Amino acid sequence: MGFFSALNSSASALTAQRLRMDIIAENIANVNTTRTENGTPYRRKTVIFEAQEGNVPFSSYLTGASRQLIKSKGVRVSRIIEDQTPFKMVYDPGHPDADENGIVQMPNVDVVTEMVNMISATRAYEANVTAVNATKSMAEKALEIGR
């Protein structure tokens, strides 16, 4: 793997994880949104990652002959999907969106799950920053050798 391909791979992961954190923050911000533009409660969103074209499956890293074929291009967000789990039903007869039985449909967002996902995204982001810094450090050392 070359210097720039290592940086590109980490940079693409940084971008993807940043978008993931933005979506998680949106989910948390809408935990009590009972009515959106289409009249339904907010639906939790999830980010789907995929390898960018040119990536080789991990299993091929294990074979020595394939080392010449590795051309990493990183990761990208393929799509953002809405979680189709059912809405939470809460009894709150005083709520403006309550039905005739006093039941309110609340978003399918669980704050604990979102916080765990946010910690995971933050750790992945930090790991990629560390990878960028390690790549920069290796390049600096290589330049020092050349002096």
Describe this structure in words.
This protein has 147 residues and is of the alpha+beta class. It has one domain (3-140). It is 45% helix and 16% strand. The protein contains 3 helices and 4 strands; from the N terminus they run αβαβββα. It has helices at residues 3-29, 58-61, 111-145; strands spanning 45-51, 75-82, 88-91, 103-106. It is elongated.
Secondary structure layout:
Layout lengths: L2 H27 L15 E7 L6 H4 L13 E8 L5 E4 L11 E4 L4 H35 L2
Antiparallel strand pairs: 1-2, 3-4
Helix pairs in contact: 1-3
**What's the total count of β strands?**
4
- Whole-number total of structural domains: 1
State the end-to-end CA separation. 24 Å
**What is the strand arrangement across the widest sheet?**
1-2
* Helix-strand pattern: HEHEEEH
User: What best-fitting shape do the alpha-carbon axes yield?
Assistant: elongated
